[in-house]
Amino acid sequence: MPEPAQPSSAPKSSGRLTPKSIVIWALVALVGAVAWGVLALSRGEEISAAWMLAAALGSYAIAYRFYSRFIARRVLKVDKTRATPAERLDNGVDFHPTDRRVLFGHHFAAVAGAGPLVGPVLAAQMGYLPGTIWIVAGVIFAGAVQDMVTLFFSTRRDGRSLGQIARDEIGPFGGAAALIAVFLIMIILLAVLALVIVNALADSPWGVFSIAMTIPIALFMGVYLRVMRPGKVSEVSLIGVALLLLAIVAGGWVAESSLADTFTLEAGTLVIWMIVYGFLASVLPVWMLLAPRDYLSTFMKVGTIALLAIGVVVAMPTMKMDAVTEFASRGDGPVFAGSMFPFVFITIACGALSGFHSLISSGTTPKMVQKETQIRMIGYGAMLTESFVAIMAMITACIIDPGLYFAINSPAGVIGGTVESASQAVANLGFTISPDQLAQAAKDVEEASLLSRTGGAPTFALGMAEIFSSVIGGAGMKAFWYHFAIMFEALFILTTVDAGTRVGRFMLQDMLGNVYKPMRQVSWKPGVWFASAVVVGAWGYFLWVGVHDPLGGINQLFPLFGIANQLLAAVALAVCTTLLVKSGRLKWAWVTAVPLAWDAAVTLTASWQKIFSEDPKVGFFKQREVYQTGIDNGEVIPPAKSMDDMHTVVTNSTVDGVLCALFAILIIVVIVDAGRVCYKAIRHPESVKLSETPYVKSELVAPAGMFATKEEKAELAAAETKTSAGAGAGTGSS
Length: 734
Prior knowledge:
This protein has helices at residues 19-41, 50-76, 85-88, 100-111, 115-123, 128-155, 162-170, 172-201, 205-228, 233-255, 267-283, 290-315, 327-330, 340-348, 355-361, 375-398, 402-409, 412-415, 419-428, 435-444, 457-471, 478-513, 525-547, 553-582, 590-612, 620-632, 643-683, 710-733. The longest helix has 41 residues, at 643-683. By secondary structure, it is mainly alpha-helical. The chain has 28 helices and no strands. The protein has one domain (19-88, 110-203, 265-411, 452-687): Up-down Bundle (Amino acid/polyamine transporter I). The protein is 70% helix and 0% strand. α8 crosses α23 and α8 packs antiparallel against α27.
């Protein structure tokens, strides 16, 4: 049956528009509209990147103020009087009421991984306009909606994982398909995220040292906040940021000292350390390492991106990439093959809509949120913040010379291994850059070469160095800012891997709990250790394969990553739509059903092409056929350098193709079964059964947003007075 209505607890006077606020929001809308007009109508001339900032920020502000508020109050009807799982089930391990500012930091750090940095950079080969439109429109109407609604429904169900919610609400058949699909997709996502880190940190003592130091700093912050000075969030934040900055500076010292060799690790060694760290982050109490480390890295992430935005406003760099390139229509781009529809949407992934976020929103975060009213800020707000990161990534890719962009992002098989061959290959693509310019670009950032540095991270770092050096330090500081950006990206992504591993553990425990009930106890030690080992072992395998892939792991795995990520979003949106219908919110089901329809169309089209395309650059099985034929004929096909490489390509292409087909089939099963459940709920509402946890009155008092309102300050003061009075009475009676 539909959920029982609870009395609305939102302040009636809160958020009403006044004449002053109407004028302000009208100006915000006007600036955004003008900026979008400039971006859309400019052709053949360079425009300032500041217009992209204005368009994005104006759109985000309006979406958060109006659309997210509408969803929270009218669609979800969040209730601040209802106790969350963190309050009811607090055990100090996985369930723990966490300050909204710390939790926002954890959630943002956990969801903002490689996608918003890498995807937009790769998609820039089609021009800045298609990707920018999808990043902004996609996050407002799809990505942020998915994150917030999933977080709400998981919070109402004791923080259960997405797959388990699907099994409980859709049924055993579609639910089983969802459980399997979600877990397998999760493994691929974590492997790709970890691969980007390994590529960024390999042979980089500065980056390895700085990233390693964030672990003891986070452990200190966790103990400080829980044992030494409970509740002193601002205090521990200042200490943590100071230590983080010291670690970054010290990384530069280490790189120039005798310790450099100790922290210079090969890719294979980094894989082992990544697996060890992922396991520890999964089994330790959430307050000890995961939450404080993610909160700490959020300062680094948000601070750097904010400074980058300020740098854009000050330096006013121009967009050198065309608004729409010829590769958008031809589909034969050197960075990735495929037409604009569907592959620009698949490639951008996390910046606009990310299924991975639904795993965090139904994993760690719902077990720590204090109040339902905070779901809007954490779910919708954190996703808008990540989308802004994607916008900054698009800017960094498009302000550098297009010839340099394609020399960096094209594989060696396309441009060769010398600056002369790269210059000629870029000219064949329709862009111009001389061998001397390519050599000088590498020299400016103290790198031996920038050719074929695929994966997006080096391009983002180069664009960031371009902006920062034009504001602070000049050309002489470009190398410093480049290496700072590389380290920043690794820190950015690592926080997603540790939180993702823990979420993967929750999912596996949920799955195994259907067979062996003690596994459902998420803090049961044997289950925690076993499930964590299985998860890190699984993504560790694909990480190892990616590191040793002759075609470049990122080139092989990122298309599968994008498709899997978007298919996972289809699962989340299907589950959310089902729950809206079953809980008596049919008239609002379009909020998730419309983005579900779009996402399914895009991802299933991409899946079809990756499975059946006759272009070996697009189709996994066609690629397998080409390399298998080469093996049969005793021929080594570049970029493979040996028969062992040829066999590796065949194996990896086969695995990728099979997984792509399996994911698509499972998602179709989930969507069809969800449709069946929705139809039944509409026709026979009396038969509806919800697995929602019964209402329990909350005893906690906490603000809904980042800053407490006047009414919330009064509530906090009253709660403190009541607590003090109770403590005084207790002391007197003793």
